[in-house]
Amino acid sequence: MAGPSPSPWTRLLLAVLLGVSFPGEMANRCKRAQVKSCTECIRVDRECAYCTDQMFKERRCNTQAELLAAGCRWESLVVMESSFEITEDTPINPNLQRSQVSPQGLRVRLRPGEEQHFELKVFEPEKSPMDLYILMDFSNSMSDDLDNLKQMGERLAQVLSELTDDYTIGFGKFVDKVSVPQTDMRPEKLKEPWPNSDAPFSFKNVISLTENLEEFRNKLLRERISGNLDAPEGGFDAILQVAVCTRNIGWRPDSTHLLVFSTESAFHYEADGANVLAGIMSRNDEACHLDSSGTYTQYKTQDYPSVPTLVRLLGKHNIIPIFAVTNYSYSYYEKLHTYFPVSSLGVLQEDSSNIVELLQEAFNRIRSNLDIRALESPRGLRTEVTSNDLQKTNTGSFHIQRGKVGTYQVQLRAMEAVDGTHVCQLGEEDQKGNIHLKPSFSDGLWMDAGIICDVCPCELQKEELSARCNHHGDFVCGHCVCSEGWSGKTCSCSTGSLSDIAPCLREDEDKPCSGRGECQCGHCVCYGEGRYEGPFCEYDNFQCPRASGVLCNDRGRCSMGQCVCEPGWTGLSCDCPLSNATCIDSSGGICNGRGYCECGRCHCNQQSLYTDTICEINYSAIRLGLCEDLRSCVQCQAWGTGEKKGRTCEECSFKVKMVDELKRGEEVVEHCSFRDEEDDCTYSYTVEGDGAPGPNSTVLVHKKKDCPPRSFWWLIPLLIFLLLLLALLLLLCWKYCACCKACLALLPCCNRGHMVGFKEDHYMLRENLMASDHLDTPMLRSGNLKGRDMVRWKITNNVQRPGFASHASSTNPTELVPYGLSLRLARLCTENLLKPDTRECNQLRQEVEENLNEVYRQITDSHKLQQTKFRQQPNAGKKQDHTIVDTVLTAPRSAKQALLKLTEKHVEQGSFHELKVAPGYYTLTADQDARGMVEFQEGVELVDVRVPLFIRPEDDDEKQLLVEAIDVPMGTATLGRRLVNITIIKEQASGIVSFEKPEYSVSGGEQVACIPVVRRILDNGKSQVSYRTQDNTAQGNRDYIPAEGELLFQPGETWKELQVKLLELQEMDSLLRGRQTRRFHIQLTNPKFGARLGQPHSATVIIGDPDELDQNFTSQTLSSFPHHGDLGAPQNPNAKAAGSRKILFNWLPPPGKPTGYRVKYWIQGDSESEAHLLDSKVPSAELTNLYPYCEYEMKVCAYGAQGEGPYSSSVSCCTQQEVPSEPGRLAFNVVSSTVTQLSWAEPAETNGEITAYEVCYGLVNEDNRPIGPMKKVLVDAPKRRMLLIENLRESQPYRYTVKARNGAGWGPEREAIINLATQPTRPMSIPIIPDIPIVDAQCGEDYESFLMYSDDVLRSPPGSQRPSVSDDTEHLVNGRMDFAFPGSANSLPRVTVANAAYGTHLSPHLSHRVLSTSSTLTRDYHSLTRTEHSVSATLPRDYSTLTSVSSHNSRLAAGVPNTPTRLVFSALGPTSLKVSWQEPRCEQALQGYSVEYQLLNGGELYRLNIPNPSQTSVVVEDLLPNHSYVFRVRAQSQEGWGPEREGIITIESQVHPQSPLCPLPGSTFTLSTPSAPGPLVFTALSPDSLQLSWERPRRPEGNILGYLVTCELAHGGEPATTFLVDGDSPESRLTVPGLSENVPYKFKVQAKTTEGYGPEREGIITIESQDGGPFPQLGSHPGLLQRPLPGEYSSVTTTHTSTTEPFLLDGRTLGSQHLEASGSLTRHVTQEFVSRTLTTSGTLSTQVDQQFFQT
Question: CA torsion 1349→1355→1356→1359, rounded to 10°?
């Protein structure tokens, strides 16, 4: 790879060029790369080189320029050299009337990241040979089109002759595959599908391309139409055969190939055939399959081709499609033709009578477009074609002019990485290949292209265990690579031996290697990856001289404390160029011979006002100042006046001559006139010659002066007096009249020279050297310093990204962001105010926060102020001793302008409520910009603007901030320098600071919590971070003393300790909060001096009693301290997912001699006590049988003869995704016999993030076999699990399937078959939730064809007694639940309260959960009776401590309030919610309410008394996330307490992995009740019996032992009957006998667990008799009942079987709202069989095989 040795002059020139072309940034990239070998180095960047010189002592991986400058020999450089060679280049000959390109072939090899540019010339003749092939749809609907096509021969020939003199024409026809269901396969139809028609076929080449137009016309006249069944045709099969059968069709190699595709139907495409024919067809092999008669033969065995296949093949064979379609199918082909680079689309009339005109228009349009594409390109190479002369279209083609050679610029680029993988790590097929750069009409250019990924030759010639490395290492590429246990340049130092540090000590120093390195074998090995150098590491390479704040001016490198400049530069800071180019004058000399050139600047021998930067005399400047220079000498010689009168007049270098008349201006160099101050007369003189008078020069002076008349001199004193008087009046106005002052400020005389502006226009900062997150930017005032001036300013972050700030501000207007606020108080600052713990500081902080909160509370959704502290502002003028307050206000992003206006208003007033502030100063900082104001007091010249720098970890490596002075709202100054640019350069981090682990536990008896903070040193130096505590369940100043401050790590320090003082738990707190575990957080922020925050940078501290702290926390805490034994903890644990159920875990062995290792792993978030253990004899393990897409934690310890060592730090790893399980049960809301709303539940095991659902539906026959193709709809919004399907065929059964997709692919499908006509007519419209997809069943099958969204909500029809209700599968995250309950006349209908939980199936390992909104349960215990008539004596757990149970028939005492009729839960956060209710009926005035709540599984009972009867809501806080609570609300009157209304609710949210009771900040929270049984499904078995089924609760409280079912009359009157159902199956069933017809019954189901009885699921149902039929039906609403219900239930909708409730199909069990039979049963049906029977047209006549559903 190293080239031949060039001359020294060539080396120097190359070094200079490289030094100029590639400054320090590129060198830094080569330097910064952590490479270990020559090959790794040269692959970092195309400019990186490697030095193999054995004597070279600098860093070997660098740019060529720096390596040469550092002394590396040219022959020792290893570089990757690219190559470019044109292998075939035949010039274009315009006389040849055919398409041509130049060049035709080339070979190129590029380095990763390198580009190669070259020109491609393409010639398209004005009239080139043309082949036209017409492909026509021959289905029966095109019969009239065929008649017109037969008559078009002559007109078509005339059009072709206008375009070219050499053309051929051919014809083909197509219909569709001759198979079911596309074609009618009855024998008579296969022979003649329509009268006077040919037999069906797929594709047939009728007329190959021919020049004989008469033959074409005669063959076409003999053609007859054919036919098929379905509307889409098989045109794609025909197009592919026309493209690939070049010999059969007759395509000529040098002609333009045009394909006319004429049809009036849609098309079949790939996988469409597989769906129709149950996957029996294989993929199309893209080969020609025409027999001798031109007929396509593989239509039965191969599927249709895909659209990308057609695009690729037509481009490969230079075929341009022209789609001539009717208006009916135009929409299909409008999108299809855009996929082809060059194509045309036209609308045919219904009979194709305009086909010739359409073709003529298409020909002209196509001939003017040319597309150039790169085919068969490897992944690692990118090709881009542009043109300086030709314009590009939207599809990427060029507008060309035929007959002229077009020139195109081609850019071939080798990628550095593909999908995050370096290109040299890809396969060979992705690195090299033959790229076909092909224009539309010609063969094109073949490029043999590849990427250079060679290995350095020196690595192939390494000396193993070389003597040059003392036999302790390999000698590779000029240096030693030491074996394990050896170090040093010659591998002579054993890392295990002790070293004498005396040779590493400098004089007068006690630290070896100056504290900047380690002493190894008597030599210093410096820290910092080259930062420190010298025998004793005494030189810091960051401390060399700087120019303009930049180290070595970025023109050199720092070595041994001095700048080593790049070639062409010199000076202490490399700021002096060696070149004299900047000193060359206009004549080519140096400094015009009047000086010498030094450091790129001319130093003139004689400095003058009239010499420029290159010592050249500026004669124009001389003339501009000539009159003024000669004035005093002329005045003293001619008139004896002026400043030089007397003896000094003799010093003048010229003489004057008095003349009567001066020459005209054009005859002299300059004509001058001045007024003589002594007599007020004007004298004139002229200057001749070159304008530089010498000793012998003469200046001509006019003898006569021009003097003013003396008679007007008396006016002068008067004018002076009047002017003084006017000045006095103006001064008074200025002093005492603000209006006059503003008007006078507009006068130029009053404002001249009075200006404010920034001192500098640019600052460059290094982030690792910054000690604060702000910059004090000085602003100056010049001119008149009297009066006050206020200047408003603003700063914008990340101006290097256009539109960044506006985009960030428009993302989410309601998002809460912190606003920094700074104000100057009207009080002096004291030392106590600067100490946050002093009493004076606390008092002022409280005063400030109270007053500011009072002002800012008018901002909607704003929070209270926090982080308030005080400081002084230096360089603030006369008020720099005043107190500055800095605080943080959290408010919505959209409130920024309101905050700014409010702040400016109160600053101008000088007060915030009762807090006095000094006007003229404020700063308001948002997340990406800030605004503020500073004040210049009288006599103040300079003030500092405190500019926030918005330091973020995600900042660019070089980000720009722009500070701008906006205006001067008060004062008379004008703005001078308005803008300041601030550049912040992010360099490599010096250290990474983090906590050791994310969670610490301390005993409540301890006084101080000690939290370790560690630093991992990358580049030794000091690092600093800020820390601050944050409340959780522990509160500041009650459980602990809040702390905030800064941690400073000195060079070499790796460990610090944070101490937080804990407070004892008071007796009152113990009573109120019980034994709740308290916790708070500590955050690390604001890294400085080049530090970075690592993970975790937030820690949770758990405070508990010593005997109650979890053993896991104790063991975890103890394990964090080192054990003093023979075995240490394994080092560098690393985990990587190897599949969806496998993780590879490895580590480095610890010191000692372990005999084995013990691995402990568990699911993140679970307790460590549930961990699995695994033994391993090697330092690696394979964890198997894991859950897919689940986060696991793991750690390892070593064990040996001496016992078990400590565990390593834990690491986490997530398994890969696996396809999801089938979706949950399908639910149908029938709107009409042709419209249904389909919804489904999330898969029980999502195994990843669900990204989409696919819904398929299609007709089935009597045997449930598909009829025709299944239509597909892709729902790409996974939260929209709902679809409205319209225009279904009436009285026809359909099969519906739904499957889910995640990152691993599509899962299995859930299916159901249903006939909408068998369902009862609905009395109301089903509401449509906004943005649910609506699909037209009569439209196309393509994913994107007819998918639209509705924003309408259908209303109930007139006469309906019910309101429209949203479907119960609607989601609610961070939202609200609203329930209605029966029990009073004015109550709302009960809307699927207890029975909607089926809408969600939770995976146990979901990262986030979306739950059904209407899954909250209620209990109405006054309607539950306990009598001795119960079948079973087993009852729910005793609730006597909460409320007494009474009979439903017992009436309340007069004046006692009824049950609250409406209970509403609104989630406010993961641990707080709002409980609301409706005022109950009561004959007397209410006196208040009582709200009780406790954990569902028991625990302390909390009671809230509300004495205000108008308050019907309360906010409850400090709840535990993911725990179920039971709430009870009752009202009180003078007569006593009324019955309770009860509801059970759970706030589900993501929690901290190490703390299940601590919700993650910012995570979503959802209301749910996961412990109730699934939806109740009723099946009528006889007029007096039914079957009830339900699903297992998703998350029961404890192990399920069975279920308690309660049945009672809905309107009361009889005792309730209870049933016990034993077992724990996914779905339970119960047959209930002894019922009555036309009587509504209420059923309740509870799960019996080891913890007691869970919440109920409730449903009301009626078995209705039906005239004329023996079989009953299940009634679902009052309109179907034959007699009305009592008044209490006149408006009640049944729980499960209401009109808004879906009926469910899961493939085996049909839970319908009716099982009806209008005729007789045709066969004997058992009870078990009826539950698996579907109804068709109202008659139970067909048995559905259970196996069909299971498959």
Answer: -150
